[in-house]
Design goal:
Elements (H helix, E strand, L loop, with lengths): L12 H25 L2 H57 L19 E5 L12 E6 L4 E8 L4 E12 L2 E6 L2 E5 L2 E6 L3 E6 L5 E9 L2 E11 L1
Antiparallel strand pairs: 1-2, 1-10, 2-3, 3-4, 4-5, 4-6, 5-8, 6-7, 8-9, 9-10
């Protein structure tokens, strides 16, 4: 009589072989890839470093764009200021009219031609001084005043002035006085003396002279109608 088999077989031998083969394959793949697992931390660190570098580059680019915009605005401002200065210079030239010229032959030997206000070009009394402009205003008798100013320093000096005619020579003299700067006393003004003669084109050229502490300063200017 055949003995009854009481064992319960869940998996067959074939199934066990399949599972064992799969397990062996997984182990082999894991062993092959194991060195790469060790590089994950290094790769993550590199990624973070790259991200930080990208962020720094973006910040530099943003600063560069901001600087470019600022430079563009400053260039626009400078252009507007240059245009304004050009317009003001044109207005000044228009106000100035022409340079003082000697009276024509046969005209009365009076000072009527010099009546009004006249302005010099910017000039320096000496190489060490700041440039300034003298403005003279005379009546028909040659009496008037001087206003000298250095725009860069905000300094203004005022004095009485006269113009006299000696043949073809004009003599312009002012007096010792005081200067002010921003509403405060800025020291003495030493009188200027100008000897003016017509050149070949009848344009009046003035040779200026001033004496300070025994030192004589000299310069040349023309007078423009103000």
């Amino acid at each position: 009589m055949k003995k009854k088999n009481r064992n319960i077989e869940v998996f067959s031998i074939s199934a066990l072989d399949l599972f064992a083969s799969a397990m062996g394959t997984f182990i082999l793949i894991a062993i092959v890839l194991f060195p790469y697992y060790l590089k994950t931390e290094t790769a993550n660190a590199q990624l973070k470093q790259n991200a930080a570098e990208i962020e720094r580059i973006e910040k530099r680019a943003a600063r560069a764009r901001a600087a470019a915009e600022q430079a563009k605005r400053e260039a626009a401002t400078a252009k507007a200021e240059a245009k304004k200065a050009k317009e003001e210079a044109a207005k000044a030239r228009k106000r100035a009219g022409g340079v003082m010229q000697a009276p024509k032959p046969g005209e009365p030997r009076t000072l009527k031609f010099a009546a009004g206000c006249w302005r010099t070009e910017p000039f320096r009394h000496n190489a060490a001084s700041q440039p300034g402009i003298s403005q003279y205003c005379f009546d028909e008798n040659g009496n008037g005043n001087l206003i000298f100013y250095r725009e860069k320093l905000g300094q203004t000096c005022g004095a009485f002035a006269t113009i006299r005619r000696d043949g073809e020579v004009l003599r312009i003299d002012d007096s010792d006085s005081r200067c002010v700067r921003k509403g405060k006393d800025a020291g003495p003004w030493y009188a200027d003396h100008l000897v003016c003669r017509p050149d070949a084109a009848s344009v009046i050229i003035c040779q200026g002279q001033s004496t300070i502490a025994g030192k004589v300063d000299r310069w040349r200017v023309r007078l423009h109608r103000q």
